[in-house]
Design brief:
The chain is of the alpha+beta class. It is 32% helix and 25% strand. It has one domain: Aminopeptidase, CATH 3.40.630.30. It contains 5 helices and 5 strands, in the order E-H-H-E-E-H-E-H-E-H. A 5-stranded mixed β-sheet has the order 1-2-3-4-5, sandwiched between helices.
Length: 157
Amino acid sequence: MAVASSDLLIRGARRDDLPALVALFAADALGGHRDTTDPEAFPEYVRAFAAIEASPDQTLYVAEHGGEVVGTFQTMVTTSLTGRGSSAMIIEAVQTRADMRRQGIGALMIEFAIAEAKGRGIRLVQLTSNVVRRDAHRFYERRGFKPSHLGFKMALK
């Protein structure tokens, strides 16, 4: 059964959403981010949430269905001198709860982010996806994203 957009609320994340968000990330076996529901790690998530919440250029969203958090994504807006000083929106940390996948939630979250970018006059929406997430790559390509660049990362911790 697909989740209709009228059944799904996409809203800014609140502090009380953190346990559900942490559980979403900790359940991601492919992400490799070492997320955990260990209570000793929770203050790190609280600090990160506060930094995101305080930033005018970042927004953390949740997708809520039936009063439960079933998905999340984060947007960041950057402005650079390239493109004649235009801005780009980066979509990060897109997750749908495992039992709710393939119901259209991810598509609605991405559509929401794109609409937000268009509404703000942003010229480009971009995202990265782990190279092992082949299903996600097909999902993003169906939404109009093109694999145009090769990304590099360096872990410092």
